[in-house]
């Protein structure tokens, strides 16, 4: 069936089985690489995107339920030339090893900073709990989220464009 | 990515002779035991033993470096990016010794057509093998460029310098770009062993924490992984396999699966079964339908006892590692201890994936295996093509910590593609498949006995280790799952130990300490009740854990400070400095002493006794109600020789500390007789954000100009020991069996 999805501010028409999880529509129909297949079970967070501002597992959401909802992927936060605040913070902190989990980490952190621009360390750790990293980059990810919060609150400068 | 590859191919047609031909003319079987990358692999032959690193097997300069007429520099490595940052570090090495900006360098990683064969990217060998080769090849090229400029200008080479921007500079303000200089120069010459290296005092790039070149794309959704590849006409495949290795589904209705809308084909070769569909979700739906059937076990039942019972029930081949005899004072106190580790999963966040395309009688395989050249050997044998008709190309996958499903999935994809010429096949393993079918990190057991004399000197040291081979890297079709499933199955090769000094189950069983009367024995167990292979640091995880826990047990028995006991038995100055640096930064002398809740512990090792030195200390706090351990802080010091990218080293050590904490305190594969029962993250939990230490500090010692020492696995053993020693300090209880889980700690606390 034809489904219209609002992804990163644009209406995108796809032709998919209604039960198809959003993850596969994003990757295969829309060519967006940010959301990753990690488990397909909602256990690791590699597929995390924002749905109406909340962090969700795109591997579990059937596309048929998403018409009229606002979907944001990591591609919607910025680009190589114009990275968003969290992307800049992750780059500055070198908060990646293999990086496979990182787009999901950024999307979960974005959902936190959207509703709480000044989270405590405990807030950040609790909020990031659903997302797994196997390389052990956690300390850098936490630093990057703190840095992004400081950038958003004006304590640290935000770059106008990339490096 | 294909367009890019095609361009690289045409650029590189000159690389037809020398090292590559030599490597391919060798039988893979004969070299199956050689340590290529330290952990098996067929590996290339040594043809120039006097040269550094992988120049030994690929001594020609044009195997490594090419300079175009416009000055563009291409560098080739047989190693691959696994998330460890090797791409950036190798660019820095090449940039430094060529004396060009790092941005001027285009690096091509393992590709069976384009790059030298450097065996596996494993065993913390990449900087030692490829870093050393590229460093010296670049120094050779720079030397030849200087000579060329000297010839052009008719001056002495000594009067010529380079400016760091790709220009040669000479007397009277003369300059010559590398491009024009290289255009009249052949790099198809063997490297000289003594090409002058740049003076560390003048380094522009090495030693700087250059930001990683691959990170920006990964943060913005650029296609960065094999999983992101899309080729025209590509089909999606899923394997139709039982729930874990050694099982298959009974009486599945293949005809019904083939008839599902969107299914292109069910590929069947003997017991090898895969579904191929136009759309990925269709393939997943078909897989689920297939799984709706009872499964049967096709192999021997899985072991249900504990690690010690399982391993001690297997026939052993005893290998002597150390046997020294010295006259010492008599033993005053003796400690006996048995330590163990269960089977572990690699747990890459992205399950294994591969792409394969069979066209015009040749197969191209895109793989995230650690052994790109081994993938070619495996696929060639599996489908019966000559190796030159198989082109294997490394593309980055999810983080890699040893042999996961990468090699298997590459062979699977190739076999499917072989059956469906003309259509690229993208095969993605599922999460459950990765848990159920990948080779596990082997379960291990050690028994140690050590004695102190009345002067608190160690006078005897006995260490026995029981382990399956960690070296089951596939170098032929028998090493991958598909090889056992096809109509004419390939025999599974017998496991072999890796000889010391690298070792496998024996790795780091030889203490670096200065000890008398050392008897170390490796009980090598070739019969594998579970499918196992290399996991980051191999046997070093348990061997270092055992040695470093025994030091603390002896220190406690003798009433000596654990750090003092170590320093009293360590002559290696670099080891001492790593330990004292760690201790100084940690505040070891003024640390919180064990009080039932808080405690501190340390661990040290030099990886394989030939890689990086690493010391780790941590302070823990125990919740006695739940047995949960909070790591308040961890402090590490590391000596990796010349640090190419200090922040890259810190990132690896931080990651190693967290991963080893997870292995040591939580992880354990579980089994029933008929299958693996850890099949997802709920049945195989790993540490999450709320389990993280409050802080981790890593101090990198500066060793300008010294040889590179492999770093990526150096923290695994010391961290495990530091954790156990801190728990023992806090509680007074010595836990020796991993995982040191909250349940076990609570049970132990309850018993006092």
From TrEMBL, chain A:
PANTHER family: BLR6046 PROTEIN (PTHR44379:SF6), OXIDOREDUCTASE WITH IRON-SULFUR SUBUNIT (PTHR44379). Residues 1-77 form the 2Fe-2S ferredoxin-type domain. Keywords: 2Fe-2S, Iron, Iron-sulfur, Metal-binding, Oxidoreductase. It comes from Skermanella aerolata. The keyword Ligase does not apply. SUPFAM superfamilies: 2Fe-2S ferredoxin-like, CO dehydrogenase ISP C-domain like. Signal peptide: none annotated. One of its GO terms (molecular function) is oxidoreductase activity. The keyword Oxidoreductase applies. Gene3D superfamilies: 3.10.20.30, [2Fe-2S]-binding domain. InterPro entries: 2Fe-2S-bd (IPR002888), 2Fe-2S-bd_dom_sf (IPR036884), 2Fe-2S_ferredoxin-like_sf (IPR036010), 2Fe-2S_ferredoxin-type (IPR001041), 2Fe2S_fd_BS (IPR006058), Beta-grasp_dom_sf (IPR012675), Diverse_Oxidoreductases (IPR051452). It comes from the Bacteria. This is (2Fe-2S)-binding protein.
